[in-house]
Design brief:
This protein is elongated. By secondary structure, the protein is mostly helical. Helix 1 packs antiparallel against helix 2.
């Protein structure tokens, strides 16, 4: 996740700069409607990066150095719907915290978003 924060930060800067330009260079007030619209835009652009990366090869830029690949646990192709479900559940897993810690308890080392989206992350051999 740390490696993927770099391309995501770049995308967030672009989205935030566009929001600032559309708001005539005036910072968007916290907790306003425009603030929440920007949050949704940032969440969506992050999801697009992840879903497109997972669809194109089962890996994000951050997963490649660690030789990790996302696969469907049932052997079916990774569909956009399944990947968006994984992303939404991963958001909840991160927000709650226990969704990621669940992998320490699960015998197959799955997180809540793996279980809910029927996906799994596997280490690729060299």
């Amino acid at each position: 996740m740390l490696y993927d924060s770099l391309p995501l930060a770049a995308l967030w800067i672009v989205v935030s700069a566009l929001a600032l330009l559309l708001h005539a260079g005036v910072p968007i007030p916290p907790w306003s409607l425009l603030f929440w619209l920007q949050v949704v835009a940032l969440w969506t652009i992050s999801g697009l990066y992840l879903v497109i990366s997972w669809q194109r090869g089962g890996q994000t830029l951050g997963m490649r150095p660690w030789r990790l690949r996302l696969l469907a646990s049932d052997g079916r192709p990774l569909t956009a719907g399944r990947l968006w479900r994984r992303y939404a559940l991963a958001t909840l897993s991160l927000a709650v915290g226990i969704g990621l810690l669940w992998s320490l308890i699960d015998r197959q080392r799955r997180t809540w978003h793996d279980i809910g989206s029927h996906t799994r992350v596997l280490r690729i051999s060299r």
